[in-house]
Specification:
By secondary structure, this protein is an alpha+beta fold. Helices cover 14% and strands 28% of the residues. It is an enzyme of class 1 (oxidoreductase).
């Protein structure tokens, strides 16, 4: 819930499994209408809703998410 935490994605790694979408406590993650190089719709984050909790990072089996903080 800190404003200085940001979540960054790597769309090319997403395989559209939906674990992050289904587990995000703030429903801040959805699927893009765009397709990545692997042929999957990748996830996008609504940064206005995202609280930087890291659930997406924890549940993602493909390393799509990176949680960044101010250093």
């Amino acid at each position: 819930m800190q404003e200085n935490i940001k979540v960054k994605t790597k769309p090319e790694r997403c395989k559209e499994c939906g674990l992050c979408v289904n587990n995000c406590p703030k429903q801040a993650i959805s699927f893009s209408e765009e397709i990545n190089e692997q042929g999957y719709r990748y996830t996008i984050i609504d940064h206005d809703k995202c609280i930087g909790c890291g659930v997406c990072y924890t549940v993602c089996p493909d390393g799509v998410y990176e949680v960044l903080g101010d250093n």
